[in-house]
């Protein structure tokens, strides 16, 4: 019987080189776009802003990104314990961080490699562990929506842009963390439209499997860990802008960072690449930040968040593959 959930891609040499080529192509594309804008405004101003950053300051930005990754990895560990998989903390952190290597695969389907590692090491099927991906995404949406709401409250800016994204993020988080509501919504959608019967059936089956995560204590813990993680990266963005002498409040910087990250994800592009950068530069310009600051700030924060995560994932991926293969062979 085939699973109703997507399965992780096979780890063939062809697929690995295809993913690496996609990763490299996206990286070059984004850098080319930012470099073109910098050239149009004058390289001297942009380079002057980049020279303001010391090695210590770059290290602080990377450390704050690590805070995000590690707190979310602990959240992943909490979800696996809730599901009763039986994996330990170091194992779950390895799975979570190693999955970052696949962050820019189309639709981030490559991150389902975590499910394959769990299957090899524990015997749990993809169908039983797939809810981990859904609840992890929902927890990110909930945390980011809360940050957006607080940012809107204290910054008083960009209400037209941020409110729809905030509401959409909250709606997605509520649906996934309320299995009964998700199941009823899928049923109502199908009965009223007759569309996507197989997909709606899968959604209802997924909703039943999400009941293990609907306890108030696990949802509260997940939200707190997510808030700490994403606020750490938002704080890094604010620090970066202040180091570049930009006049911007903390909550406005956090709001721009989180909104751009979510907006990039809504474009459907792998890792939100292109959309997130465009939104970040555009919003900074709307708030009066000059282009010679907005461009390098955007480039640096994306390098120290998304691309740093991918680099960590690529470093851990071979070790995680070897460990899972060894477990699967025993």
From TrEMBL:
Q: Does the keyword Cell membrane apply?
A: yes
Q: Where in the cell is it found?
A: Cell membrane
Q: How does it sit in the membrane?
A: Multi-pass membrane protein
State the Pfam families in the record: LPG_synthase_TM (PF03706)
Position of the signal peptide: none
List, alphabetically, the GO terms of the cellular component aspect.
plasma membrane
* Keyword field: Cell membrane, Membrane, Transmembrane, Transmembrane helix
Report the main location listed first in the record: membrane
Q: Which residues cross the membrane?
A: 20-41, 53-71, 141-163, 169-191, 212-232, 248-266, 301-320
InterPro entries, per database record? L-PG_synthase/AglD (IPR022791)
> Which NCBIfam families does the record match to this protein?
flippase-like domain
What this protein is called in its record is Lysylphosphatidylglycerol synthase TM region
